[in-house]
Amino acid sequence: MQRMAAIAVVSFLLFSKTVAQDSAPAKPYDVAEAYQIYSLLIPHEESYGFAKDTLMIREDTVSMKISRADLTPDAANKFMDTIAVFNRINSRKWLLQRRCQIQKSYTLVGAAIIKNLPDQPPSSAAYVEMSVVAFNHERTRAIVYLSNSCGGLCGSFRFHLLEKRHGKWKEVPGATSVGFS
Predict the structure, then answer these.
(1) Contact 61/90 with Cβ under 8 angstroms?
(2) CB atoms near residue 5 (< 10 Å)
(3) Secondary structure of the chain: what % helix, strand, coil (to 5)?
(4) What is the enclosing helix (H) or strand (E) of 112?
(5) pLDDT, tens digit, for every residue of 151-164?
(6) Positive or negative torsion for Cα 149, 104, 163, 99
(7) pLDDT tens per residue across span 50-68
(8) N or C end of the chain, less CB within 10 A?
């Protein structure tokens, strides 16, 4: 009887901790190097071109998991430690800050606004969603997930692999999980 009561208490505590983590308020995401990477990638997203006046960027990060199957075998080996960091830090949501340095004006919007966007015309629904950026211990490799929509069936998603070379971030091949809507 005592054993069952102990199991029930432990189960309740584990469940409570999981619920608390899921419902915990998002913290501001203040990693300067991550905003350099976002600034590098966002202008290449399809929705960036479709946004006529202001691009919408979802203010809270999307939680994603990446596996070795999402990468080529060479990239999976090379980014093994970064994959582990990505999955750990993306288990919670973070609030993006207005720190992207892109030519187009942008606004950070909540998930509810994005959910209620019309499908047409494409320019009215152009937005980007991003995960946090995971760095390896040496901060020479990074992984980030970006998805974008430009209305209707216009949009895409993918993991981006980056390496820092001569002090600058460059995207490298190796991600196989790419999709288009």
Answers:
(1) yes
(2) 9
(3) 40, 30, 35
(4) helix 111-115
(5) 777 778 999 999 99
(6) negative
(7) 888 889 999 999 999 999 9
(8) N
CA 79 to CA 90: how far, in whole Å?
A: 16
The DSSP call for residue 164 is: E
Alpha carbons within 13 A on the beta-carbon side of 79: 33
Tokens 């460059």 -> residue: 170
DSSP type of residue 125: G
- Domain boundaries, position 68: 26-180
In a domain, 130, yes or no: yes
The CA distances from residue 149 to 47, 55, 114, in Å, are 6, 11, 10
CA distance 157 to 172: 16
114: exposed, middle or buried (Cβ count in 10 Å: 0-12, 13-18, 19+): middle
DSSP helix/strand/coil, 54: strand
How many structural domains is the chain composed of? Answer: 1
In a domain, 48, yes or no: yes
Helices (H) and strands (E) in the chain, counts: 6, 10
Confidence label for 85 from pLDDT (cuts 50, 70 and 90): very high
Q: Phi/psi zone of residue 82: left (φ > 0), alpha (ψ -120 to 50 degrees), beta?
A: alpha
